[in-house]
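Quick question: who can interpret this fold?

. . .
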Amino acid sequence: MKKKGCLAASIIIGLFAFGLVFGIVQMMKDPDAYNTSNEVQDVDLIVDASQFSRITSAELVNVLGEPNNIENWNYKITESKSYDAVTYTYQNDQVYEFMLIDDQVVRFTIDSSSAPINFKNEGEIFPMFGITPSENLKKIQTAPSIIRYHLVSNKIAEVWIPDVKDESFGMIKFTYNLNYFD
């Protein structure tokens, strides 16, 4: 009877050791596949979004040059509240749209729908745009297809990604001044 108990214990210990060694070997082959934290791997900087926070149209042109298009329009929040707005559009591989109110950039939108931006985890998103999140960062929208943060940094009030699909997105919005938005 003792031999059967020792044999069973030996088999269980052997299977456990085999599983452990097999798991370690698999992790060593592809460590990124087993990284489930928001730990940031090396990511490329797409653009430093903080540099555009509340700058004037003249400063924007100084940084990026003349835009491809300038559109004056009326930004209507409610029936009784609206603002004269101007959109500066720059188009290269991605479309950069800057919404200015009172000659200040209040929102920066990147439309990269023709070449979506890929990420492995949400922790990579801020470094892609040169953002160091504040201690007060709050995730305010959690849905499979939406990522939205408030109190992002001392220069960025909100980051909003309205359409996330399979660890990629085609649009991201940086809001610098929430006073003009609901």
User: Anything to note?
Assistant: The first helix runs from residue 2 to 29. The first strand starts at residue 69 and ends at 76. Confidence is low (pLDDT under 50) at residues 29-38. The radius of gyration is 24 Å.
